[in-house]
Amino acid sequence: MPAKPTSTDRTPPSGPGPLIAIGGAEDKLGRRTVLKTFLSLAGGRDAKIAVIPTASSLGPEVVEVYDALFRKLGAADVVAARPDSREAAEDPEVVGLLDDVTGIFMTGGNQLKLSAIVNGTAFGEAIKAAHARGVVVGGTSAGASIQSSHMVAFGTGGSTPKQRMTQLAAGLGLIRDVVIDQHFGQRNRYGRLLMLVAQSPGLLGIGVDEDTGAVITEENGAEIMRVVGRGVVTVFDGRNVVSNAHEARRTAPLLASGVQLHVLPAGSAFNLTEKTLVREAPVVDPGEAEELAVAGRDLKRLARDIAAGDISPTVLRRRRARQSAEGDHV
Amino acid sequence: MPAKPTSTDRTPPSGPGPLIAIGGAEDKLGRRTVLKTFLSLAGGRDAKIAVIPTASSLGPEVVEVYDALFRKLGAADVVAARPDSREAAEDPEVVGLLDDVTGIFMTGGNQLKLSAIVNGTAFGEAIKAAHARGVVVGGTSAGASIQSSHMVAFGTGGSTPKQRMTQLAAGLGLIRDVVIDQHFGQRNRYGRLLMLVAQSPGLLGIGVDEDTGAVITEENGAEIMRVVGRGVVTVFDGRNVVSNAHEARRTAPLLASGVQLHVLPAGSAFNLTEKTLVREAPVVDPGEAEELAVAGRDLKRLARDIAAGDISPTVLRRRRARQSAEGDHV
């Protein structure tokens, strides 16, 4: 497909677009950090957003909310794309709604309804194609879960991983070898994500808190996940796990030893390809830095004096007192 | 102190006694697995148990419950030792109650009340001395927390670790370099234990679920923790953690990347000294083992036949059919 001409000076996208998995209940009235991040990535004032409310059991009101929100935040246009059956998801008119958008936003609801209608249809392929050509794909709650290759279909809460407490289904696969869970801290879903990683240690378990977004972009061949919003993104890496998942009976608590745990608040970044934290430069305290700079100047003068060999104890004492007084005014 | 003569053939204890940290709400009417484990380690029908209800805000009824329970489970004797002030904890009569017991059981309640009355008094020293000479020391909820060197004083629940969400105080120190939390899964205390490990990565964080016990014994110079009961024991090992705990402000969510997580159900064992799972022999399916044994015998006969060089395709086919029929009856 030829590159679409744009009327702005926005850098034309190359390669797949960013993904944003939001843990549900994103702030819609206050700072709206997460939604603003989505809109900004989608082009800000030039954004044309398709809202996909298929997961939701609500009527047009769910679209109205996001339509109003994105327009208020400055989006140029918002359209609703709501296939409600696999037949509708093959309708060229519905599929065509995604042709010229800069962002796709999937609402919350029931991810199994969303995946059952969308996956493997022309509409599902159009979402993937849009992502591949640089369109931003975001979603909240159910709309976050469906982005991964392996999707939590449903399951119960609780901290303790137990056999059979949750089910996997196939997601859209915009991001591979991960399983994304949402409302993570708020609904205490540690247990079910740990169960999935214990049973499938090749998957990275990613739990996204409410009003929090995991922004995934491709950078130099690696997939980098950055965290925005109020909560944290929790990552379970089961590479070295020892588990009894293959022999645990019924609903018994599971052994899961050696899971690498990463709790990532806003501002942190994680390399999903390497499965490691992206280390940022440490925060420097300006007061401490200034103090050190002054001490460094003092030491240089002292070294010069010693090299000149002109130091008597009395001279040194006076000079240091003077330097220290000067230092206070720097 | 000379070894106390026992009237039974129980092995006289040498070295420190077992510890049992129970996550609260242990089953008192049904299987009573956790309490039975405590009593069995304390000598079963020869057990003399001191119940310490100092943490509790309840009156004599808390002692009455455990008195009735331990006697029903077969204990020879149960005494109450309840200092309610630091003065009382220096009273030789109260302290003397621990002289000839085989088990000490600390009830639930407020661990800060328990530690504030007991720690650094003659009574506190008597608990440590009893542990050192082989007496079993157990406790539930508050009575579990106080066993570690570093104790969760109080704090809020929630999955997400946040700066200042919980406080440390000094525990009895029966087990060092750990911090024990309780009601772990049920009250969703992942966050606060992670906060503590992020701030103090030298501590091993141990979260014990309700109706679950962590039994800690010294074996060949290592401290081994075995899990009994209905839930799991969760271990956070912060040795390799990367955290922003030293600079996170107010109540911000914390970065805690690279925590080793171990979820341990009943039957599993963990080496607290090495901070590794104790690997048990894998469970062998008897049907699969039998099938393999039969196949092994078949292969041996086949190898013998080949070595003898007397095999024609027809003979081989007949022989294998015969061997297979025999195998079915093995």
Uncertain residue segments of chain A: 1-10
Number of helices of chain A: 9
Largest sheet of chain A: 9 strands, mixed
Total domain units of chain A: 2
Mean pLDDT metric of chain A = 90
Largest protein interface, residues of each chain: A-B, 40 and 40 residues
Keywords (chains A, B): Carboxypeptidase, Hydrolase, Protease
GO molecular function (chains A, B): carboxypeptidase activity; peptidyl-dipeptidase activity; serine-type peptidase activity
Protein name (chains A, B): Cyanophycinase
Enzyme class (chains A, B): hydrolase
Give a verbal description of the structure.
Chains A, B: It comes from Nocardioides panacis. Chains A, B: InterPro entries: Peptidase_S51, Peptidase_S51_cyanophycinase. Chains A, B: GO terms for molecular function: carboxypeptidase activity; peptidyl-dipeptidase activity; serine-type peptidase activity. Two copies of one chain form a homodimer. Chain A is of the alpha/beta class. Chain A has two domains: about 20-280, Rossmann fold; about 285-330. Chain A has nine helices and 16 strands. In chain A, the strands form two sheets. In chain A, strands 3-2-4-5-1-10-11-15-16 form a nine-stranded mixed β-sheet. A seven-stranded mixed β-sheet of chain A has the order 7-6-8-9-12-14-13, with helices on both faces. In chain A, helix 8 (about 285-310) runs antiparallel to helix 9 (about 315-330). The interface of A and B includes residues 242 and 279 of A.
